[in-house]
Amino acid sequence: MQFNEIFTVLRKYLSDGYDVPSFFREFVQMITDVPESDWDTPKDPSGKCKDNTLKSYASRGLSKKFARSIVYKLDTCNLEDRLHNLPRQAADGLVEDMNKFDSSININNYPEKIADHICDNIKDSAGLVPQEKVDKDAAMKQSSRLKNNYGDALLRESQSYCSFPGCAKPLYKESYGKTQWVYEVVMIDKDKNNDISNLLAACPDCHATYLLDNDSKLLKRLLSIKNVISKATLADLAVGDIKIEQGLTTALEKIKNLNVQELAKATFDPKKIEDKIDPKKEPALYMLNRTHVSSYYLTVREILRNYDKKGVLDYEELQEQMKGLYRKLKKKNMSQMEIFEHITSKIKTSTRHESIICQIIVAYFVQNCEVFDAISK
Ligand SMILES: [Zn+2]
User: Fold this and answer.
1) How far is the CA of 207 from the centre of ligand 1 (A)?
2) Which helix or strand (DSSP H or E) is residue 150 part of?
3) DSSP one-letter string for 246-289
């Protein structure tokens, strides 16, 4: 069944008189949760997809790019609900119109059948391998074998969220205090062996779609995601035994509550940041540190020294801890961005303060030279 055939019939029964582009937008919302801004299609300067492009999809079928931008997010529940709730007379008319293309559609199965046709059509446009060419049973057996061997490690690495770009569905369900894991193990490169470096934990939907997908761009993206998350796990283990000064929790509380007027009186010229973070290579990290150092450096220094005097924390010890964290992470070949993030998250886990507050303290130690070496020029 062609996309334009399905679309035309649905528009007749579901559109409430909308024009083609408006109904197209509503239709995509009924079968996915992807916002229009994420559709891969030409946009006008207002950020909306061009009406003419949508009209052409409606009459000639979806482009591969467009289909790929929604194929991992298909969820036809809303569409099926709308179809189930059609008044009987409209439902009869719709079934009759659909029968011209598929005679197996009837009044009892039409919502599910139509949803299946739409999904097949979009998967086809996205360039996925037809379902029947993939041995799904074998893939499920393999996933369950891999879960037994590597499941715990993969779940920890993914932090219990689907690893596919833009998905991030939780890989568990919780009820009455019991956790039930809901996930599958994906072989990133299907032609390679099932070594853990080639495996990712994913939600069942992404797993099922990826079985049909041989897109090389996505494969590369998944390898790079794997690289980032497995490095983070290694880094966690490497710095696991470094303790953070307990008194830092108190200092962060104080920093969190500093008011803007107080801070404005003690701004600092953050010249040295350029010697540590190359603005060309890491512009976002550079700007973030610049801002934090210029607003907070002097005040944070005073707070830390003051707490050191009062015995709330040991400032020298804290400096050593920051140096230690930096050295260990640097040895893991992490980028400056990754190191900054990781020290922030280590402080966050130790103090249970928000990331934003923890970043301020990491920026302080960047300026203070415990984190990052001077760039050789
Ligand atoms: Zn997913």
Assistant:
1) 7
2) helix 136-158
3) TTHHHHHHHHHT--HHHHHTT----TTHHHHS-TTT-HHHHHHH
Q: How far is residue 157's CA from residue 163's CA, in Å, rounded to a whole number?
A: 9
Q: Which residues pair with 201 in a beta bridge?
A: 185
**What would the pLDDT profile of 293-345 be if each residue is shown by its tens digit?**
999 999 999 999 999 999 999 999 999 999 999 999 999 888 999 999 999 99
Q: Which amino acid is at 170?
A: P
Distance between CA atoms of 258 and 268, rounded to whole angstroms? 16
Round to whole Å and give the CA distance between 18 and 202.
Answer: 38
For the chain, give percent helix, strand, coil, nearest 5: 60, 5, 30
> What separation in Å is there between the alpha carbon of 160 and the centre of ligand 1?
11
Q: How far is the CA of 208 from the centre of ligand 1 (A)?
A: 9
Centre of ligand 1 to C-alpha 167, Å, is 5
Per the structure block, which two tokens stand in for 300? 């944070």
Q: How far is the CA of 166 from the centre of ligand 1 (A)?
A: 8
Measured in Å, residue 202 CA sits from the centre of ligand 1 at 5
